Each structure stands twice: as structure tokens, then as C-alpha cells.
Description:
Blueprint: H1 2-21, E1 26-32, E2 38-43, E3 63-66, E4 91-96, E5 113-114, H2 133-143, E6 148-158, E7 165-170, H3 171-182, E8 196-199, E9 201-202
Parallel strand pairs: 4-6, 4-8, 5-6
Antiparallel strand pairs: 1-2, 3-7, 3-9, 6-7
Amino acid sequence: xxxxxxxxxxxxAALRSALAARGVRLSDVRTYTRTFNGFAATVRTxxxxxxxxxxxxxxxxxxxxxxxAEPARVRGLRAPDAAPPLGGASIAVLDTGVDLRHPLLxxxxxxxxxxVADDDDPARPRRSGGExxxxxxxxxxxxxxxxxxxxxxxxxxxxGQGQGTEDVAVTDQLIAGLERAVDxxxxxxxxxxxxxxxxxxxxxxxxxxxT
Length: 211
């Protein structure tokens, strides 16, 4: 697995070198080899026309938002019984940062990952008033008897209009989170992968053709 992963990294590096030789400037490069063979990068608008070529298929970055909502009570309807735990295997929660000090989560979290800051601390920023979705989703699983591997893929970031911040994830962070769920210790082998990855963000959609 490690040899194959390295071959994909070498292939991607060669491709980026070929693009650079054609004058295409890439920055903020993030490479993927486990769940997706490719890389994310920032490119100048004037270079977009130079990207399509053999071996290159460019896709725009999308934005995703925490999928939490206020619960609605329905008369006469009760929650279904929880499924039996997975026998000790952790469930990866890809969402906002988690409140690691929350008493409900004490002793039920595995060492996680922050795909937003690209480090090993999945905690929500202490001074952040937002980022509650990850803690809520992890709490539901812990209450059902599961262990959780927290992976922060969403957090306070600049809005699409460039004014202020909002809790949001972008495509490269989502893929990076999935890569870590497949290889939690980041050593290139996937024998330690989690059996289930629960993604707590969704993408907005238009209800009408021209909206």
C-alpha cells in the first residue's frame, strides 16, 4: 500500500512539474492518494484554460455547511431503538471541531485530526461561539455506546463573498478528512481504517433552475 501510494505521489508531482513547465502556477497544493487520486491547488484565473490536458481534469471547489437543525417534535412518534454498537470499532465524525472537554464525550474519543488547520487537534477553537455541530453529532453516537474518531473538516472561514466568516467546509478539507478516516495514523497503510465515516455537512442546492 505504501509503495502504491508513493507511486501516486510521484505521478502527481510529475504532472505538476509539467504544468509548471507550461507556465501554470499552482499554490496551496494538497495531495490525495487514498480515497481520491489527485490534488487540490489554487490557480490563477488566467491559467484555467491551460489546465485541461491528458491526465488533468479540473473541478471547482465546492462549499459545505453543517447539517444540524432544530429538532421538530411529532406527536405519537418515538425515536427508533439504537442499533447495537460496532464491537469497539470507532466511527469517524467529519464535522466541525469537537468540544473535547464536554463531559458526555469523556473517555469516548480517539485521537483525531483537523483538516482545516492540517494538524492533529480536532478541538473547536476555545474562543469560538460556533462549531457546535461536531460536538452534537459525536454526542449522539457516544450516547448510543459508540467510540468516535473526531475529524474537523468545517470551521469558521471566510464567506464566499469575502466579508466575515461562517462555519463552512470546502472540497479539499472534506477529501482530506476522508483520507484520514481511511488511514487514521497517516502512515500510508489502511489496515487501521474506521468501518464507518459519518459526514455531518451538506451542500446547498437550488430549488429552481435559475436560482
